[in-house]
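Troubleshooting: if your tokenizer reports a length mismatch, compare your output against this known-good record of 439 residues.
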Amino acid sequence: MQPCDLLITARALLPQDDERSLINQAAVAVTDGLVAGIGRMDEMEAAYAPDKRLDLGRALLLPGLVNAHCHAAMSVFRGLADDLPLMDWLRNNIWPVEKRLSKEMVHLGSLLSCVEMLRRGITCFSDMYLHEHQVTRAADESGIRCLAAEGVIQTPTLTYDSPEEGYRLIRELHAQYARHPRVGTAVMAHAVYTTGPSMLQESYKLAEELDTPWMIHAAESTTETASCVEAHGDRPLPYLDSLGLLTPRATLFHCVDVTEGEIELLADRGVAVVHCPQSNMKLGNGLAPVEAMRRAGVRLALGTDGAASNNDLNLFSEMASAAHAQKALTGDPASMPAQAVLDMATLGGADALGLPGLGRLEEGESADLIALDLDKPNLVPLHNPASQAVYATSGAEVLLTMVEGEALYLDGHMDRVDLDALRREVESARKWVQRQLAS
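Known-good structure output:
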């Protein structure tokens, strides 16, 4: 028998392998934070001698979910400015308060988001914001996996006065976490309406230099499209392509206002697209035609966006929204089947973030996994686990969230973060935000 650190057993397992297998009465062996083996429970118990066991009973094991687009610190703005169009929401409500955010406030909001995501089965997220070193600090403290970037815009921000200073911050963050096992970096330009053409190209060259993904909000609304046409004489995606920025290194957030020709362009260029259905619907921007993108072969991932425009960080509800909305949009119930949406939240997210070892449970890869409690009434009976995960799960059924073999959340307990102290600090943050609005 082979020794292992931990043997996890459960009613069923969806490893998200190439065959999209289902293993009943399953077990996962973990050693040094990696998956040592996967298989049927009886076979694994005969093959491994674990130091510890975690018997989850009637549970469904899955790879950890990947939230491919988030602004974690914005959880302090949750419920602040609802039911407004995008540009009104940004210019008149979010940006004025953001201009006064402290490092401590960014850290607090990010830590709150990390806790929320772990509680809902998210083991990895991509983040773009200000004071991004405070986001990475929160990720490191909570144990979640993170790909982070200081947002690049043309005008001065809280953290830099010029684009050159912004690039320096990105380089420093990259150097700081170059060898960190869970925290990595990317280069993220905010949008075509906040970043000029030379800066877009400079930021892309920086991503090439650091060998990281390059990411941007793109084609999020018809308003953005109109402003891009007015400023540059073209729609956002052809404009980015004219600058040489639509490549397999590029990951675009949203892509709501796109044409059939632009979908073909995305597929031909090998670009990844992160779909954020609930944020897009709530801001009245519409729905990205992701079923058409899927059929065209576009690389697809799923994201929550920030809690200020969502208002939660729950990929289970995003999966259901993505599937339901496309069926309604196309009039075809076969659009966005459950397995395709689950792929977006796991394998697709890992691909869009340049982290191909994630999103699946495979021998030799990181033991980033979650478990759903199949005893919950809404998950009974179990005919099709992928369908159950996409259509029936709310996120409250998450029993276990594990990153690198460490149980960061288990049955209501989170050892790394003092939740009572966090709640008290968040209440103080709420009062601060209200004062900024009143001033």
